[in-house]
Amino acid sequence: MRMELIQPFINAADAVFAESLQAPTKILDLSMDENTYRRKGVAALISIKGDIEGRVILDLSPEVAMRVASQLAGSPLPESEQVVRETVCELANMVIGNSVTLLNDQGFRFKVFPPEIHMNVEGLAGSVDTEAMVLCIETPCGEIYINIAMHYLHRRRQEQSAVHALD
Amino acid sequence: MQQFSPLLRKDQQPVRYLVVDDSVFARKNLIKMIEMFGGEVAGEAGDGLTAIAEYNRAKPDIVLMDITMPQMEGIEAVERIVRQHADARIVMVSSVGYQENILAALQKGAKHFVQKPVKPEVLYEILRYVLGDDPNAVGGPVALAGEHHI
What we know:
The structure holds 2 protein chains of 2 kinds.
Chain A: H1 3-21, E1 26-33, E2 42-50, E3 52-60, H2 62-73, H3 81-105, E4 110-112, E5 116-118, E6 132-139, E7 142-152, H4 154-166
Antiparallel strand pairs in A: 1-6, 2-3, 2-4, 2-5, 3-7, 6-7
Helix pairs in contact in A: 1-3, 2-3
Chain B: E1 16-20, H1 24-36, E2 40-45, H2 48-58, E3 62-65, H3 74-84, E4 90-94, H4 99-108, E5 112-115, H5 120-131
Parallel strand pairs in B: 1-2, 1-3, 3-4, 4-5
């Protein structure tokens, strides 16, 4: 696991939650996980393919999603599956958008796929046997989990090794 | 909640906005800010194609345009709108703020760029600048490093 690939996602998540919710956030837990990801609530999975490849899962309970939605809307919203989906999607888009901006400006080129929302009981496709960084961020609306698995594309690694060999 | 002086047109009428984003949620968030700025929502669209139709129908003063959307992306919609309406004032609003994206949008005719999550005070200053209310408010052209506003 390369921390230089993970760090932009952690920084972006922290900044996006703090800015969106207008309150400080705190990283409660940070660990490595090699098992299939077990969803805790409603999850958005975003895949990345290119110079770097992997996926990011943003996961929060429907109750937390509703509190986030109400906070962003400025008034309490009636609970609905649509609002929960929209909230999780929008948070995921903002976190990914901000982190890929940092990575892209570092010279990495890749494609980001639209978020897939998982609300049902089945596991998450693409999350099997992947070493991932799992973190829990405490926000005023509740805990938000992020699971990040990211690596350099093999071809890119070889290119970099070749460059180093020439140095 | 932060207070803002109303942004008005030269005829003292509220500024009319077209809000384009495939996320209903993001549109609501922008509409909340538009109301804080004393503006009026002239229309909404969830993709670039609808945005073009809505622009032709509503003739808004300002368009707030997302970049990544289904059917037609924001940058292509900007190009088509500006081709038909050279005076269109379009501000890109996207979570993806890398330089290529911003440059592409500006080359197609967008006036400015703001990154999500949108801070009301940043959007307000950008709108003031784009509306020409205070040309010095935001400092001119878009910055291409760090925060994508000045």
